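Dear colleague,

Thank you for sharing your sequence with our group. We've completed the structure prediction you requested, and as agreed, I am returning the results in plain text so they can be pasted directly into your records. Please verify that the sequence below matches your submission; if there's any discrepancy, let me know and we will rerun it promptly.
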Amino acid sequence: MTKRLAPYLMMNGNAKEAIEFYKEALGAEVLFNQTFGEMPENPEYPLPEEAKGLISHAMLRVGETDLMFSDNFPGSTSQIGDQVTICITADNTEESKQIFENLQEGGTVKMPFQETFFSPGYGIVTDKFGVTFQIFTEGKQ
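Please find the predicted structure tokens below.
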């Protein structure tokens, strides 16, 4: 069963500034903050030096709601209006994969559903209505 849906803000290099702004403006608490430079290195995709200080993932708590952030990976950008995605968190890979497959019908896969260093099942898909979802599986399977 799906556990949570959370807004995910994709920023064009200014996630640190946005986090500080929302922290003050909304009285948010920073729960997690990681840069691309703190991620495990992947020799197949070397990280440009200028990207190492950008935010790869951050989570703020606003009241009882999580608000997530990331800077776009170097080479990709968000347009005003499409920088907000919805992160669907599930607790098992089979459910996550089914949600991903359901949403991709008539849509566009932005990142295939796969195991990553941070999730046993993760993918990004824009559905047929133009809404982008990040499907995230919690924990180890």
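Summary note from our side: The CA atoms of residues 14 and 76 lie 14 Å apart.

Kind regards,
the structure core
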